[in-house]
Amino acid sequence: MGDHEARRGEIALSDALISDDNEKASLIEAGRLLFARECTFMQGASGLDHLPAATLTEVAFAGRSNVGKSSLINALTGRNTLARTSNTPGRTQELNFFNLGGRLVLVDMPGYGFAQAPKGLVEKWTRLVNGFLKGRSVLRRAVVLVDSRHGLKDSDRDMMKMLDKAAVVYQVVLTKADKLKASELDAVQARTLEEIKSRVAAHPSLIVTSSEKGTGIPELRAELASLA
């Protein structure tokens, strides 16, 4: 290859990289604008007969009861008290719906995996969540939150299995990334990515977040804005 052809190849590669950077910046900005809109609580649903009308695209957030789900929703929307946080795992046992600027509905699902839960409560949770996942036509994505300090646990795998069977696309998001050293975080990411490869409904990429530090929040906003 001559100098002219090589230079032309370098220019083409540079243009492609600039295009990728511009596209990423555009997506980040779209996410920022969407989540800057007013976000209001719609209603809670303790049973399938209490679900709101299926009119807007929905994104559901699932995770263990101490994974930091409410904190992440608050960080995404820039509001400190939108989703209730609690030091008592398993406190919220209903589906909570939030309208994001008339463009997207965020669904805070009841936490799972809380220790020593009464059998009746677990059965009620399973019926509610399974029924919602299988019958909600406007549900475009589930976000499965995993505590980066612990990685995937059996209760997370059970949730993913439920989503696989319901044919709901889901994306795994690691939380509390600020609590780990970089090498530890890299190891958790690698293990998690390897495991979700075999999952039929799993999105192939991870997003690493910290609600406290703001890590990954713009990227997750951008991902969700692409669904709105």
Query: What is the helical fraction, as a range of percent?
Result: 40-55%
Distinct helical segment count: 6
Radius of gyration: 19 Å
Uncertain segments: 85-91
Shape: globular
**Cα separation of the termini:** 46 Å
The tally of strands reads: 7
Helix-strand makeup class? alpha/beta
Strand order of the largest sheet: 1-3-4-2-5-6-7
- Report the biggest beta sheet as strand number plus sense, adding barrel if it closes: 7 strands, mixed
Pattern of helices and strands: HEEHEEHEHEHEH
The overall pLDDT average reads: 88
Q: What share of the residues does DSSP label as strand, in percent?
A: 15-25%
Notable traits:
globular, alpha/beta, 228 residues
Written description of the protein model:
- The chain is 42% helix and 18% strand.
- It has helices spanning 3-35, 69-77, 119-135, 154-166, 182-196, 217-225, and strands at residues 39-45, 58-63, 95-100, 104-108, 139-147, 170-175, 207-208.
- It has a seven-stranded mixed beta sheet with strand order 1-3-4-2-5-6-7, sandwiched between helices.
- Helix 1 (3-35) crosses helix 6 (217-225).
- The radius of gyration is 19 Å and the shape is globular.
- The relative contact order is 0.17.
